[in-house]
Each structure stands twice: as structure tokens, then as C-alpha cells.
Design a protein that fits this description.
The chain has a 9-stranded antiparallel beta sheet with strand order 1-2-3-4-5-6-7-8-9, with no helix packed on it. It has one domain (45-181): lipopolysaccharide transport protein A fold (Sandwich). The longest helix has 25 residues, at 12-36. The protein has one helix at residues 12-36; strands at 45-56, 59-72, 77-89, 92-105, 111-121, 126-136, 141-152, 155-164, 171-181. Strand 8 and strand 9 (171-181) form a beta hairpin. It is built from 1 helix and 9 strands; from the N terminus they run αβββββββββ. By secondary structure, it is mainly beta.
Length: 191
């Protein structure tokens, strides 16, 4: 009869040393993979004094200006800093939106403005203030679900959610609406 060959007992220290070596080898390879992979947080192009115009039947609809832009071509998205968006009707300026930063979908023309957003219309004597507004280019509407403060001659309206025409001739605040009425003509919109 043959004796069974019992394997030598392996010490716990040896197992830990091997695990450590494998772990280090894995970390080194992971670092190499991360370095080789494209960094999606950086745009393919960086531009100063970026501008973009949309026209329909030869008439300017809106004009976007930004101090800096970072273009992500593969994502069809551009990140913007210090935004000024002007809306036009019959080639006449109707309203202006300013914000700290935002994004534009370069395929659809949809935009998002973020940070100290002020949207105003001289003709309507109206100013909307919020932390975020979106331009729905297909519907030609300004929309948000955020808190908004709308100042018009005769009062101030606050609430959550907004849908408005780009010239601010019509707007609807959707929920938790509160109004403060002032005598007509005594309060002018601050710029």
C-alpha cells in the first residue's frame, strides 16, 4: 500500500505575501488602463469668446455668447461659462438670459443655464431669477422645475416650475405660487 502524499502545510504569511503581490500587480495594470482610456471629463476643444446663432427662414431666433466653451463633439454637448443668450422676434431683440455656466446640446439646440440665472425682457418689463433654466429648442419654451422669482410691474410672483415664451410675454409658474402685489406703475423692474 502506498502512503498518501499529504501536501505541505502552507503558512498564513506566504498566502498573505502572494495576495499582496497579486494585488499590487493588479493595481499597476489598472493604472495603465486608466492612463490609456480617454478622459471624458475634458472636452476635445476649448474656445474663448464662443458664439452661436440659430436662424429660421433667414431670421435670427437666438444668439448665444459665452466667455469660454469646452466642446465634447462625441457627446454633441458644449459646456459654457459666463453665458449671455439673446432671443429675437422679427430680428428684434426681445429678451436676454445671463448665467454663470451651462450646457448646449449642439445637435438639438437645447440649452441649460445654471447659477444666478437672470432672464429679462425690456419690452415686458419682466425679470425672472432662478438657479436653473432650460431652453427647449423644439417647443421654443423656457422651462424649469426650480424655484423662480418673477418681477413684473404690479408685483412679484414666486413658486416652483416655470414655462415661458422666449420674449416673456406669457409665463406660468406651476406650483406653490405666492404673489405680492404692488400698486401699478410704482415699481419698475430692476436690471
Amino acid at each position: 500500500m502506498k502512503k498518501a502524499n499529504n501536501p505541505r502545510p502552507v503558512s498564513l504569511g506566504l498566502i498573505l505575501a502572494l495576495a499582496g503581490l497579486l494585488n499590487c500587480w493588479g493595481c499597476q495594470n489598472a493604472d495603465k488602463l486608466e492612463q490609456a482610456a480617454p478622459v471624458s471629463s475634458r472636452g476635445e476643444q476649448k474656445l474663448d469668446k464662443f458664439s452661436m446663432v440659430e436662424s429660421l427662414a433667414g431670421k435670427k431666433q437666438w444668439e448665444l455668447e459665452s466667455a469660454q466653451a469646452e466642446v465634447f463633439e462625441t457627446q454633441k454637448r458644449t459646456k459654457l461659462n459666463k453665458i449671455k443668450l439673446k432671443f429675437f422676434k422679427d430680428d428684434k431683440l426681445t429678451s436676454v438670459l445671463i448665467a454663470e455656466k451651462g450646457f448646449i446640446n449642439t445637435e438639438t439646440g437645447d440649452m441649460e443655464a445654471i447659477g444666478n440665472v437672470v432672464f429679462s425682457s425690456e419690452q415686458e418689463q419682466t425679470k425672472v431669477e432662478t438657479d436653473k433654466l432650460n431652453w427647449d429648442n423644439k417647443r421654443k419654451k423656457i422651462v424649469t422645475d426650480s424655484f423662480v422669482k418673477e418681477t413684473r410691474p404690479g408685483g412679484v410672483i414666486t413658486g416652483y416650475g416655470l414655462e415661458a415664451e422666449p420674449d416673456l410675454s406669457r409665463s406660468v409658474i406651476k406650483r406653490e405660487v405666492k404673489a405680492q402685489v404692488t400698486p401699478e406703475g410704482k415699481k419698475k423692474v430692476e436690471k
